[in-house]
Amino acid sequence: MSSDSSKKRKPKVIRTDGGPQEGKRGKADGEQDARYYSEECEVDLRDPIKDYELYKETCQELQRLMAEIQELKSRGVKDNASEIDERRVQSCVHFMTLKKLNRLAHIRLKKGRDQTHEAKQKVDAYHLQLQNLLYEVMHLQKEITKCLEFKSKHEEIELVSLEEFYSEAPTEISRPDITLTEPHQQTLARLDWELEQRKRLAERYKECQTIKEKILKEIEVKKEYLSSLQPRLNSIMQASLPVQEYLFMPFDQAHKQYETARHLPPPLYVLFVQASAYGQACDKKLVVAIEGSVEEAKALYKPPEDSQDDESDSDMEEEQTTKRRRPTLGVQLDDKRKEMLKRHPLSVTIDLKCKDENVLHLTFYYLMNLNIMTVKTKVTTAAELTTAISAGDLLSPDSLLSCLYPGDHGKKTPNPANQFQFDKVGILTLSDYVTELGHPYVWVQKLGGLHFPKDQPQHTVTADNSLSASHMEMTMKLLRTRLQSRLALHKQFASLEHGVVPVSSECQHLFPTKIVSRLVKWTAIPFEDYAELPYTKDVVEAGLAEDTHLYYMALIERGTAKLQVAVVLNPGYSALPPIFSLCLNWKGERTGSNDDNIRAMESEVNVCYKELWGPKPGYQLLTNQLQRLCMVLDVYLETEPHDTTVEGPKEFPQEKMCLRLVRGPMRLKPFKFNYPQGFFSHR
């Protein structure tokens, strides 16, 4: 608004004639310059904060005057014209004040910019000086480094210490009166003493060489004697073979084994030595042997022979390469994968025999490029096993030794460096080749003395005898226990598939004499089917069901009631108990989520499993749990109240003796069997 009003307002022109007007104009310009410069001086004297307060007060006064003028004009009284003019004059005065404050603000701004510019110029000058100084410092440091890094030829010679020099060197060479005060003369004297010592050592070396030649001649004479002795010893060993067989002391066979063991790679050699030592000391039934081609093993360590006819055959090779087609990228990758997964020609076999003459055959291999060991398994039974469909995975090589130690499923390589090797040849995971190569369990690596720490990776992992010895005994016990438990399960599954729950005489006291409910179905199911069951979600979410576990489905019936049982069998059975999930189909679907008594039945087998272990080592735990489920199903059905709306007798008459039918607000049933009294009570 101020700019528009200034445009509309016409400037006043004072018309005068002659020169006096010019004098007046010059005088006015001088006064204006004086006022301008006086305002610059005034800026230094005035306080900006007070000017800001004056600015706010002036603006408030202008607002008040404008409001009063607006109010007077709105009244429309002619007598108010004088008052309006008076307020206009006051407003003009305030406008003049604002203009002056504006000029002062601009002057302050200009001075601040000038001061900032001067300070920046000073900083730039100082910075330039600093850069020059830093460059000079860097140049001097380089010169100092060159001087310090200067090496003389005598510095490469390792001289004796000063104490030895002054104590052993003669005074003609050491000259302590001069060398103690002058370092240069001291160094020259030490070099002279070094030369004198080396001359003496050269003479001593010649004497030792003559002595060495004499000893070598004596050794050659003794070698000739020993070489003539070898045929005699061989004839003695051949003559003693019948004696060795009669006394069960196969020294000749053991000698051949140890000769072959010299060609084993270090991990397999450590395994062979430690397993043989363990068998001799603790387990006479343990049989350790070496299989494979010794000639191929020897060829691995032979240096490639230099071809003498390279130049003559070069033309022929060029003609052949031109005729041959270049292999495709896929063929090259396949060759690289085969080379990456190449096994050593020799392997170590261990036969672990049990008391019942069942044998677990273990064959250990070594993958040379991956620096890991693998194992293949096979089971030989003393008697032919009864075929059971559900027992197919119990003795399979893929699952027999899975999770022998917790979490060791043998599907991934334990060596972290192998993943980078796989990426180069396009191998996604080692599990695709496990069937052909064997399983690289962690305990297999430890038996071979290999340890691959993940937190502190090492550049080269070497076989350690102490590591193998510390794990040998425990691993052999676990292997024997695993074989016995799987064979026991195999026999039990054959009975379960025919609807018979085998209970040994030692465990008869755990159950009543009459159990009406019976097992009608026992089948194996995959993990995916188990996870889709609605009453197994709690087990899956709790992490108690994994791919390495075995899964089974059982069906127990009594009358119209059908109890579906989903079983998770841990590979570490029977040290780790199976987990049961129940679903009763009788007058609706009843599970642990909608029926407290079904949850109590699950706890009878899942929580109170220690009562059902039976005689050690507890291989009858699974069948005892199934028998208890049949028992508690009888109690559940017999203690259900009779439906009065249905005519006729009760479907499940009470045959079990119970002290109390239900107890507590959850109306729990008495599932605990008390022996020898024969009644059921609450826990």
From TrEMBL:
| Pfam families the UniProt entry points to | FmiP_Thoc5
Q: Name one GO biological process term.
A: mRNA export from nucleus
MF terms from GO for this chain are:
mRNA binding
- Please give the InterPro entries that the UniProt record associates with this protein: THO_Thoc5 (IPR019163)
Q: Where is this region: Disordered?
A: 1-33, 299-330
Compositionally biased intervals (Acidic residues): 306-319
Compartments annotated for it: namely:
Nucleus
Biased segments, Basic and acidic residues type: 22-33
A Gene Ontology cellular component where this protein is annotated is: THO complex part of transcription export complex
Q: Which UniProt keywords apply?
A: Nucleus
* Taxonomic superkingdom: Eukaryota
This protein's record includes keyword Nucleus: yes
Query: What is the first-listed, main subcellular location in coarse terms?
Result: nucleus
Which family, according to UniProt? Answer: Belongs to the THOC5 family.
- What's the protein called, per UniProt? THO complex 5
- In its UniProt entry, the species of origin is given as Chrysolophus pictus
Lineage of producing organism: Eukaryota, Metazoa, Chordata, Craniata, Vertebrata
